[in-house]
Design the sequence.
C-alpha cells in the first residue's frame, strides 16, 4: 500500500493553483471540472508519477473551521521535503513567498514554515 493522493484545503482554487505552480514550482497534473469546483492535482517536478497534491476547496464549514484553527494556532497543514533548505528558502523568498519561520535547526533536521496565501501554513523540512 502507498499514498497516491493527499489534499489540502484552500480558500481559492485559482489563487492556490498560481501560488503552488508559479511560486513553489509544482506541476499541474489534472485540472478538471468537479461540480462547481475543480479537481486540481499537482505533482513534484522531481517525481511526476509520485504522490498528487489536491487543492481542495474549503467550501464545507468543517473544512473552513479546521483550516482557520490550524492557521491561527500556527500549525502547518502539511510538510514538503527539500534537499537544501537554505537554497530553497532563498529561492522562495526571491519568488515573494512569506515565511513565518526561517530555517531552524532542530537536532538532525532543519525546518522552515511559510504562508501559502490560501489559508495554510506549510512546513519545509531537510532531513
Sequence:
Amino acid at each position: 500500500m502507498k499514498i497516491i493522493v493527499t489534499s489540502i484545503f484552500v480558500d481559492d482554487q485559482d489563487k492556490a493553483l498560481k501560488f503552488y505552480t508559479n511560486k513553489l514550482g509544482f506541476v499541474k497534473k489534472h485540472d478538471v471540472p468537479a461540480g462547481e469546483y475543480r479537481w486540481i492535482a499537482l505533482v513534484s517536478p522531481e517525481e511526476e508519477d509520485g504522490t498528487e497534491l489536491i487543492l481542495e476547496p474549503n467550501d464545507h464549514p468543517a473544512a473552513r473551521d479546521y483550516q482557520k484553527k490550524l492557521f491561527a494556532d500556527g500549525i502547518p497543514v502539511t510538510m514538503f521535503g527539500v534537499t537544501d533548505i537554505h537554497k530553497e528558502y532563498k529561492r522562495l523568498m526571491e519568488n515573494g513567498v512569506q515565511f513565518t519561520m526561517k530555517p531552524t535547526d532542530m537536532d538532525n533536521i532543519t525546518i522552515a514554515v511559510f504562508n501559502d496565501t490560501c489559508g495554510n501554513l506549510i512546513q519545509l523540512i531537510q532531513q
Q: What stands out?
A: The beta strands are 5-10, 27-34, 37-43, 52-57, 78-81, 98-106, 109-115, 121-126. Helices lie at 13-23, 61-72, 85-94. The chain has a mean pLDDT of 97.
